[in-house]
Amino acid sequence: MKVLLFGLVLGLLAVSQGEAEIDASQFTGRWLTHYIAAENIDRITEGGPFHIFTRYIEFDEENGTVHFHFYIKKNGECIEKYVSGIKKETHYAVDYAGHNEFSIINGGENALVTYNLNVDGHGKETKMVGLFGKGDDVDSQWEEEFKNAVTENGIPEENILNFIHNDNCPDE
Prior knowledge:
Blueprint: H1 2-16, E1 29-30, E2 32-38, E3 52-60, E4 65-74, E5 77-87, E6 92-95, E7 99-107, E8 111-119, E9 125-133, H2 140-152, E10 160-162
Antiparallel strand pairs: 1-3, 2-9, 2-10, 3-4, 4-5, 5-6, 6-7, 7-8, 8-9
């Protein structure tokens, strides 16, 4: 049993490091933004391009694409957005507010932890980590995994923003 558990942990670690292939299509569905952390907090505060309230993510493994449906808030108004990207070897390349390298760190039936490297139009890089859930709550284990990913990516804990409690954009 310990060997099986150890193998599972190693497998998840390899996936989080981009060394193993996962079928991201299992994560297609309705997702809500719970938390986002960013090196440059201005990218995720209201009016910033990554102050996003996610509604749906589709991972199309067959065509090698990802599609996002979300809202951003500017001056208190919810603005609907649709963005797509192309699967590369270790990430999805997405053109939105610059160039992005989006990847899944880990996921389960009700939670998804992601990493995004954004390079804006001026060449400035910003690392971001996100936690998404199927409903208004996620298990504490996923919050802990999210916080660990934030720390591992050198993002200060004070740069974590809670989105789920401020989401008043349309449901779908």
